[in-house]
Amino acid sequence: MRIAVPKEIKNNENRVALTPAGAKEFVKEGHEVFVQQTAGEGSGFSDEAYQLSGAKILPTIESTYEAGDMILKVKEPIGPEYALIRENQLLFTYFHFASNEPLTRAMIRSKAVCLAYETVEKPDRSLPLLVPMSEVAGRMAAQKGANYLEKPLGGRGILLGGVPGTLPAKVLILGGGVVGTQAAWMAAGLGADVIIMDVSLPRMRYLSDVMPKNVKTMMSNEYNIRKLIGSTDLIIGAVLIPGAKAPHLITRDMLQEMLPGTVMVDVAVDQGGCIETCEPTTHENPTYTIDGVLHYCVANMPGAVPYTSTLALTNATLPYALALAKNGWQDACLHYPELRSGLNIIKGDVVYQAVAETFDLPYVPVSYYLNQH
Ligand SMILES: NC(=O)c1ccc[n+]([C@@H]2O[C@H](COP(=O)([O-])OP(=O)(O)OC[C@H]3O[C@@H](n4cnc5c(N)ncnc54)[C@H](O)[C@@H]3O)[C@@H](O)[C@H]2O)c1
């Protein structure tokens, strides 16, 4: 198979979907690898390193899309890329369709096969291609929150861990999954008082077993959220309902009840955000303030630490990408059932129910395509 890796063009996105080590694995199995010039530069991988692994370097994004039967990417295609995608091409990348109607419609028009990293789901419901980036974003969320709580950056001017004789900052984490857990470890490690809210009792039982003493758990509901927000310094949004838009747990009116300089980091922004006033921001302009409350809503947080993120992501994606190249997407989905749930759009049909429901589009079960095979 011909595998092509375009350079990411989303603002400040420095990750790349394949490392030279990964390229070598494809070449070893007899595939052809095409990498757009400087695609790996932002993550510290030179064109020469890819060439040494047997990949060919292509000069433009157009020639790269043209070369691939399978396009390996990190972020969803953006406007200028839509026209480069062609019928039957396999795209393996993050899409987050449920929060992006123009992208959904463009991919339907392209008649490509869209396999989304974020909905690849194992039988135990874990999301193996979301986990590594969630780990990065979760750890970063606490780091960013601590930073923006500083007065000159617009925060309350409170040190996350305090010092002897002062109380530490209070951190509320909405969602105790991968992001929430990693954020809690970091915030607790810095000495903050942390509360994790979730709706899953088994998850909260697990968290209260493994977390340090300064992390408590609490059922997530409007009553409890309203009770806490007036005395919280940092709120981290980390909710996920797979394939669907995040619920708005913090509504606009709640901002009035918060302390001026409260910081909110909505990591769930890529699924629409669990804070009503959350609008996607970029690393160039990461924050804005509404009613005295600072919002940080960068949709591609791991993009700021590309070295760590590229390695973490490709460690997880490479085995699947190799299987897709070896068997083709239909057979690969039969061998790896988790890849099946990654299929979102096939040749113009929406095959992921939550996406079809979100935009009121016709839904075609994925079995229609797999059983035909
Ligand atoms: N901004 C970024 O750069 C970035 C990077 C990685 C992940 N994310 C996003 O972060 C979010 C969280 O990802 P994750 O990997 O931690 O997901 P996860 O599935 O591991 O955890 C989600 C948690 O939310 C909980 N939850 C569901 N409904 C809830 C509610 N009403 N109140 C409280 N908790 C609720 C679930 O029980 C689960 O424990 C996702 O939207 C993901 O796309 C964003």
From TrEMBL:
Q: Which UniProt keywords apply?
A: NAD, Nucleotide-binding, Oxidoreductase
Report which reactions are catalysed by this protein.
L-alanine + NAD(+) + H2O = pyruvate + NH4(+) + NADH + H(+)
Tell me which SMART domains the record gives.
AlaDh_PNT_C (SM01002), AlaDh_PNT_N (SM01003)
Q: Which residues form the Alanine dehydrogenase/pyridine nucleotide transhydrogenase NAD(H)-binding domain?
A: 149-297
- Keyword RNA-binding assigned to the entry: answer is no
Q: Which GO terms describe its molecular function?
A: alanine dehydrogenase activity; nucleotide binding
Q: For this protein, what is the EC number?
A: 1.4.1.1
The protein's matches in NCBIfam families, at most eight in alphabetical order, are given as: alaDH
Name the UniProt record assigns to this protein: Alanine dehydrogenase
Q: Which organism is it from?
A: Cyclobacterium xiamenense
